[in-house]
């Protein structure tokens, strides 16, 4: 879309062309169709970083198979509240997507979401014991209805043949859980469709446009200065509200904004790679997302998993991720990103994180030094029949994990997402990674509530129309949970 500068401020400026900005643009177009919205993306198209389908595993994160949402405490105990909370958030996203499908805003739902069972597979006495206890807790939760558990090789082979074929008899016991109600989500397709719909509602998208600075004005608006990457033409826009959803670059822009709320924050970039196969003979044998247990010291995003993917109507399999290190905050970032984020206020938290996470550093060094053969061995350990000729390596998106101040430790490395907002609510940004994309709708709803408190009452009826369970929970209402799951599954054509 064409570039222009107006002396009149826009109502909302969105920085970053990923699923977060797309979701916020969609919500605003539904709630305030007369508002002027301007979107800035530094690349030539949207959804080219973490939202791109090949830059993530496409898991509709609902804690059906991801063990890191139910970690073992130091005393070995586990509890389900975080897993239930993640699932609750994903149901909000599903409800909103269902509404947009029913309204014709989104096209055929199977262009962005498909039914794909979620499975967890573990080996070793301790992990088998943990998985069984996890299953016993989750089977009582309405949102996890239908989950199954087995230690029987024949049953596990029925669920995921590629895990069991030609598996040699092992001394280690193994077990698996199976949940047929999982999904595979193409967040790239969803992002494109949401931005297209926002454009039809009047939002202006500026591609190849890099925001350089954010400065608060005396009248309370934000001066957004940018430069076009083609021709390097500068420009500026004023906005009443700014959202920074630019992945790792969100930190850089929030630092430039000068808001005190960003003090003490840093990000630690972790890159990743996947092995991918498109061979139909292999792909047709596997129709699930199978997660296992992370290696000691590995970040949660490095949990090994074998995923069925559906992108542009074509099915593939991914295995990984193989973690690595790059100082860039984005795949298309700068080599000096890690260094240029350093400020006096975040130096101590960053040093504390480095001191307290030697296992992570050791793990990343090991991954960087791993040979191609060693990486393939990890796949063969997961899938004994894998043939190297069928698989090739792809580079995934950069994940910028949050580092923040901590009174006791000086600084901590946080896995997940975190919203940073100014005290007056005029600017907000998102830092972090999983389960971000899957929970984009509730995250953006929270931003709207925090940054537009005077609109909450006015918007409530519309929000309840779009998301019937808005403001409530499902897991404590079994019959309602069952109805909502049925309704959204039918609307999204993903069965149950």
UniProtKB/TrEMBL annotation:
Pathway note? Carbohydrate metabolism; tricarboxylic acid cycle; oxaloacetate from (S)-malate (quinone route): step 1/1
Q: State the EC number(s).
A: 1.1.5.4
UniProt keyword annotations, A-Z: FAD, Flavoprotein, Oxidoreductase, Tricarboxylic acid cycle
Chemical reaction(s) catalysed: (S)-malate + a quinone = a quinol + oxaloacetate
A single Gene Ontology biological process assigned to it is: tricarboxylic acid cycle
Top EC class, one word: oxidoreductase
- Which Gene3D superfamilies does this entry report, sorted A to Z? D-Amino Acid Oxidase, subunit A, domain 2, FAD/NAD(P)-binding domain
Protein name from the UniProt record: Probable malate:quinone oxidoreductase
């Amino acid at each position: 879309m064409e570039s222009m500068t107006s002396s009149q401020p826009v109502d909302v400026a969105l920085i970053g062309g990923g699923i977060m900005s797309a979701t916020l643009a969609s919500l605003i177009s539904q709630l305030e169709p007369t508002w002027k919205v301007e979107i800035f993306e530094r690349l030539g198209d949207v959804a080219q970083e973490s939202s791109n389908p090949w830059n993530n595993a496409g898991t509709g994160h609902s804690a059906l198979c991801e063990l890191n949402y139910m970690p073992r405490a130091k005393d070995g105990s586990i509890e389900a509240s975080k897993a239930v909370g993640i699932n609750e958030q994903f149901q909000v996203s599903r409800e909103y997507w269902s509404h947009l499908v029913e309204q014709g805003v989104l096209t055929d739902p199977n262009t962005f979401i498909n039914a794909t069972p979620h499975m967890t597979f573990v080996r070793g006495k301790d992990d088998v014991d943990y998985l069984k206890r996890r299953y016993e807790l989750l089977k009582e939760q309405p949102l996890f209805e239908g989950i199954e558990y087995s230690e029987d090789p024949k049953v596990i082979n029925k669920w995921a043949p590629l895990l069991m074929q030609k598996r040699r008899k092992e001394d280690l016991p193994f077990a698996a859980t199976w949940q047929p109600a999982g999904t595979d989500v193409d967040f790239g397709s969803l992002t494109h469709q949401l931005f297209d719909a926002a454009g039809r509602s009047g939002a202006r998208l500026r591609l190849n446009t890099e925001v350089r600075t954010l400065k608060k004005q005396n009248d309370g608006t934000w001066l957004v200065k940018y430069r076009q990457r083609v021709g390097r033409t500068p420009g500026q826009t004023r906005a009443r509200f700014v959202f920074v959803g630019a992945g790792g670059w969100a930190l850089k822009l929030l630092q430039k904004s000068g808001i005190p709320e960003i003090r003490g924050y840093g990000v630690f970039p972790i890159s990743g790679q996947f092995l991918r196969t498109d061979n139909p003979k292999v792909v047709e044998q596997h129709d699930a997302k199978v997660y296992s247990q992370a290696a000691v010291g590995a970040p949660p995003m490095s949990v090994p998993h074998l995923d069925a993917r559906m992108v542009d109507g074509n099915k593939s399999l991914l295995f990984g991720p193989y973690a690595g290190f790059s100082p860039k905050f984005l795949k298309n970032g700068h080599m000096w990103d890690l260094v240029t984020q350093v400020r006096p206020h975040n130096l101590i938290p960053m040093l504390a994180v480095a001191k307290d996470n030697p296992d992570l550093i050791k793990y990343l060094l090991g991954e960087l030094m791993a040979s191609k053969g060693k990486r393939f061995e990890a796949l063969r350990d997961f899938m004994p029949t894998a043939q190297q000729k069928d698989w090739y390596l792809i580079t995934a998106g950069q994940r910028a994990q949050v580092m923040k101040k901590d009174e006791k430790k000086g600084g901590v490395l946080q896995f997940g997402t975190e919203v940073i907002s100014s005290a007056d609510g005029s600017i907000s940004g998102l830092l972090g990674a999983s389960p971000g994309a899957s929970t984009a709708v509730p995250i953006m709803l929270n931003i709207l509530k925090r940054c537009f408190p005077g609109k909450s009452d006015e918007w409530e009826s519309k929000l309840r129309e779009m998301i019937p369970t808005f403001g409530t929970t499902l897991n404590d209402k079994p019959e309602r949970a069952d109805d909502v799951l049925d309704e959204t599954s039918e609307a999204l054509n993903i069965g149950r």
